[in-house]
């Protein structure tokens, strides 16, 4: 951080995850190594090569949202609206009591409301245009979460959406930090994705990165010699960001920590002979935070579970931190990769790790010696933690890195 720059704090977390609804439930399950991965139940996946997912099973939208919102929103948006409510409650913030132009919403999205869109397209094909909901005009849209959250909470300040696949969640947080530094009082940021439906499933399968394992315990194995793709999931996290000093002045109930540094790069064109961009994004984030590699106490890895991509990540980490130079963890092994929602969920876990002095485990993984990582496996590891690095990569070459620290 440069002299005079605003320190940006996180004061509220709203979590919706396959292994826990709500921050406390998610964190308790994650510390215990409880997985939310299982057979797909939201549609009949028997005809598809990939049949496992990290699904949220105990979410009933009608228990949390007014009935008028249900017919006009996709499952993704319903989850996001509830996560937003929980984040505000956690931050002890009532949006209606703040100036509407001093609150913004910046989210990320990987797909949009695919389940809603599929349902309406089915009606179009089978019955005709008169049977397509008018809400289809926006419910499928990748920017809909930002829009619905801002409408529900009267937030008319700087807002938007970032689309960079798995990296998008960190990119959105970085955009939010930028707006806080420009003077916006509060920004809700992060991401929630949910596209476990045939249309979304086929789209995800085009990456050729989905695990086809039938065994939930051995399906998503990053940095393991048996790595063979990832398990998709649904959910994510939304975070309340504020100016650190203003948060303290208003008597914020808790300050989870600071957003200290951010770096983003794009991978070079395949076959160019130039190195991947992940290492550079880490170095940019550290430079932005004015921190050295030795200041980082834990890394929350992207963990693609594709052999070549795992090798790229482990090489980047070894180049920056030295071989086995910093503990690495992958709590996503309990949820699957949640696309744009994955990195904000890792970010929430990072702040909770800093608070409680523990590193959550990566489950089921048998670390390969060839990666040379100090991977935390089996059970949580107590540790003195002040700073963490969260990594995310999106399909197509996006790389993002975010450094956070205790306040």
UniProtKB/TrEMBL annotation:
<dbReference type="InterPro" id="IPR020841">
    <property type="entry name" value="PKS_Beta-ketoAc_synthase_dom"/>
</dbReference>
<protein>
    <submittedName>
        <fullName>Ketosynthase chain-length factor</fullName>
    </submittedName>
</protein>
<dbReference type="Pfam" id="PF00109">
    <property type="entry name" value="ketoacyl-synt"/>
</dbReference>
<keyword id="KW-0808">Transferase</keyword>
<dbReference type="InterPro" id="IPR000794">
    <property type="entry name" value="Beta-ketoacyl_synthase"/>
</dbReference>
<feature type="domain" description="Ketosynthase family 3 (KS3)">
    <location>
        <begin position="5"/>
        <end position="406"/>
    </location>
</feature>
<keyword id="KW-0012">Acyltransferase</keyword>
<dbReference type="InterPro" id="IPR016039">
    <property type="entry name" value="Thiolase-like"/>
</dbReference>
<comment type="similarity">
    <text>Belongs to the thiolase-like superfamily. Beta-ketoacyl-ACP synthases family.</text>
</comment>
<dbReference type="InterPro" id="IPR014030">
    <property type="entry name" value="Ketoacyl_synth_N"/>
</dbReference>
<dbReference type="InterPro" id="IPR014031">
    <property type="entry name" value="Ketoacyl_synth_C"/>
</dbReference>
<dbReference type="Pfam" id="PF02801">
    <property type="entry name" value="Ketoacyl-synt_C"/>
</dbReference>
